[in-house]
Every structure is written in structure tokens, then in C-alpha cells.
Hints:
Residues 520-611 form the GED domain. By secondary structure, the protein is an alpha/beta fold.
Amino acid sequence: xxxxxxxxxLVNKIQRACTVLGDHGGEGLSLWEALPTVAxxxxxxxxxxxxxxxVVGRDFLPRGSGIVTRRPLxxxxxxxxxxxxxxxxxxxxxxxxxxxxxxxxxxxxxxxxITGKTKAxxxxxxxxxxxxxxxxxxxxxxxxxxTKVAVEGQQESIVEDIEMMxxxxxxxxxxxxxxxxxxxxxxxxxxxIKLAREVDPTGxxxxxxxxxxxxxxxxxxxxDVLEGRAYKLQHPWVGIVNRSQADINKQVxxxxxxxxxxxxxxxxxxxxxxxxKMGSEYLAKLLSQHLEVVIRQRIPSIIALINKTxxxxxxxxxxxxxxxxxxxxxxLYTILEMCRAFDRIFREHLDGGRPGGSRIYGxxxxxxxxxxxxxxxDRHLSQNNVRKVISEADGYQPHLIAPEQGYRRLIxxxxxxxxxxxxxxxxxxxxxxxxxxxKSIAETEELKxxxxxxxDIAAAANDALERFRDESRKTVLRLVEMESSYLTVxxxxxxxxxxxxxxxxxxxxxxxxxxxxxxxxxxxxxxTAYINMVCDSLKNTIPKxxxxxxxxxxxxxxxxxxxxxxxxxxKEQLGKMLDEDPSLMAKREAIAKRLDLYKSARxxxxxxxxx
Length: 611
């Protein structure tokens, strides 16, 4: 089995790593909260600070009247070999303190940094690690002293605020409660015992300490409490003799104070038989032994939590993307993979796997027919305009059989109106394709980490769509122009075979009004019939051309030029394209560090706990 020191030391190490990475709060149970800690609870002036200093063997905590501890102090003790002793603060990680008077000042200054030079409190903890050969591996949390009334300069809510803060620590199932009570006060009025009883009614997590035994009234003692008759707990009471104010003033060091404490209990007629179970050294060993038991009991649940968190962190890394290689080949592969992912989603929009592609069909089924219906053909083929065009087409020469040039001009003029709807269809599909590019980029999870690559792909895709639109516009205009360049002769041959309804409709001699109204109506009707035939044809051919030139080309070759350009880029240029959002990079780095922490914790717990 692992030694007690190695197991508790490992927990300390993991807790410190959790603290550095900020993994000690938030939603759900963090690894920090799953690991056992000791919370020091007591009323103001109960001797909490003296107990902590006795356990550490160093004089390092701020002193004074009223509320001295105004922020939680997370104190991690690390037992080391050798004779050197030093301290480190989380907020000053690169600074090592060997002067513990400077540690005291730093705690005071760091407290004031958050709370100001007032009597206010803050739940933002100060994290302090002390490395010494004279300590046991232990994590202690010094909390503000419980109080019953607010004094001048404090908010009225200070009593409730302190209690809520203390409860937020001691209510956790992993927290061991070190309840500090002074021997010169009635134990029934102890704030620490009262609170411990509320949050830990069975007493499984509570260790009680009785301080100031040496300043009790003459003729009295605390045997009823220490021997468990006044208030029985599952764990034994421990008596502590604090340094006197005279010792503090004389700067008696803690090693000498421990010796003086041992001598007090050993020579005491009341407590001599309990001397082996009294004092700060015994308290530290007792807490360490209990911590080992608790840690071993909680190892299965801790490992389960670690495995669950590792799975969650891996899933989150997969979601935001794992780190990419630094060589050019890996960068090029990553870019191409991102492009393929985008292209796949873009195709899904067109093919119906995602919404949006159906809007293209709407252009052909609704927008184009509606635009063709609105063409001003009635005005162009009105009787007056037909007369004007027919007359101007023949000039001074009368036509001999039929006004062929007039027919052609009327048809050409009518077909010219079709260019507008044809181009509008091209532009409408172009707009839809651009919108689908934008949506596809936004929906490509793999691309979200690369804003520069997103911009590059969007620019390349839109450039390609512009080229496709230009080709499509040329094609649909050619379709219209082809209808003008060569008329369907069979249509007019059929018209000539129909008997003339009005024999006088085509007079032989020219005059100021060359054609009768019936003949003009006949011409307008013939041209309208021909234009309607062409219109029905263009309703089918314009969509075919647009789909072929724009939609199919977008599916087939949207990023072809981009692929060729990327393949010619140097490593440095590829790296710039993969320039990630700094916040996302920071998030991935934080997740990777947490993942390493949890994997390391799991491996180390396995290696140490089951030796």
C-alpha cells in the first residue's frame, strides 16, 4: 500500500494543479471539490489563527482585533526533505517567500486588494502553499470567523454573509470540519459546534479543537469536554495551548511553542493522562490519518469523476478541433479537409439534405413565369403600334404579299423584353447561391476555429459564383437572341395555309392607311401566338441554362481554383490561413491542460493508491 504521506501529498499536488488551472468551481462537481479538504471554522477570537500556525510551525497569519480573516485562505502544506522552508502564492507564482513576515504582509495586502482597507469580506480565496520538512501533507482552508453582531464599519448583513460563506465550504461532503472552540467559554454557545452539528449531524466529518486551556479560570478544567462527556463526537476532542500574547510579543518561535505546549500537557495534573492525544502536533497527525482513510474511501468515486470528465473534455476538443501540425503538409491537409467539409454542407443545401436549395426551384416555378406575364407585350402589339412598325418596316415601298419585315421587327421587339426576366433569374439564383455559401460556412463546425480561412473560402466561393453568373447570363441572353436570329418557319407556313377571313384585308394599292383594322389585328394575333410559343420554350430552356451554368458548376467546381492556389502556397502563407481566433486557441489550451491534469491525476492515483 502507498504511504500516507505519498497519498495525501498526491492529493495536495492535484489540488494545487486544479487551482492553477481554475478547475475548482463552476457547474457540476469539479475534481477540486471531489478531493477532501479541511475547513477551519470558529468564532472570532476563538484561536483559529493560532491553531493554524501551530500546525504549520510558523508565525505567518495577520493578527488584530475584529475580523482579521476577510477572505478564505486555502493553505496547502507540502512536506519536503531538507531544512529549507518557503511559501508561494498562486497570485504571485514566480515569487518564492522565505521570510514568513513577508508572507503575513502579502496576505494582508492581497486581502486589501479585493476588499479594500475596510472591514468587508470577500469569498474570493487566497491560495498559499507552504513547503517545509516540519509539516504534514495537508490542505486547510481558513475561513472568516463567525460573528453574532456587526460592528461599526461593517454592513448589517455581515453576520449572514460570513455564515453563508462558511456553509458553502462545510456543506460539501468532501469537506472535513475542524471546529475551533475556546475553553474559556461555555461549549454550548460555540458557533463552530452549532454550525458543524447542522451540516454534519452524524459527526462523521467533524473534528473539534478546544483552545486556550491554559487561561481557564482557576479551579476549572475542560475534562468533561475533552473526554466527550459534555458533547460527544465520533472523533476525539483535541486540546491546544496557544502562544500567549507575551510569547507573541517576544517572538517566541513555533518550534519552541510546540515544546512548551507538550510540557504543559505532560506536567498538567488534569490533562497529563491525555497528553499523548493533545497538542498541535497530534492534531496534524490525526487529521492526516483521517484524510488518508477518507481519500482511500473516495478513490473509486474520484476515478469515476476523472474518467467522466476526461470523456467530456475529449468530446469538447473534438467539437472545437484539435491542434494542427506545424509542418506545411499537415497545414495543407487541414485546409483541404476544411474545404471538403464546407463543400459537403453546401452540396447538402442544394440537394435537399439541408434547407435552402428549394428556393432555386422557386425562382423557376414562380418568379420567372410571373415576370414573363408582366411583360408589356399588349402595348407592344397594340393595333396602333403594329400599324406603326409595319408601316416603318416597308419604308416607301409597299409589301407585295405579306409584311415580312414588319413581322420580324415586331417579333424582335417582343423578344427583347425576354432579356430582363432571363437576367433576373440568373441574378436571383446567384443571390441564393451566395446565401447558401454564407450559411454553409457558418454551419461548418470545423471552420469556426479559423476565421481567416473562413474569409478565404468565402471570397473564393463568391468569386467562382461571379464567374458562373457571367457565363449563365451570356447563355440565357444567347437563348433569347437565338430565337430572334432564326424564326420557326413552320409556324408561319401554317398561318398562310389558313383561308383569309377578310378578302379586303390586303388591298393591292398603297394608300395613307395601308392596312385595314382587321388585317392589323390579324398580324398582332399572329405575332402574339408566335411569342407565346417562344415564351413557353424559354420557360423551360432558361432554367436549364441557369442550372447547368450556375448550380451544377457550383456543385462541381466551386473551389477548384482555390485548391490550385492553395497548393502553390508556402508554409508561412498556409499558417496565416490557419490563424485561429485567439479566444478559441486559449479555450483549447485550457481544455488541453485540464485534460493532461485529469489523465495525470488518474495515472498517479492508480500508481500510488494500489501499490
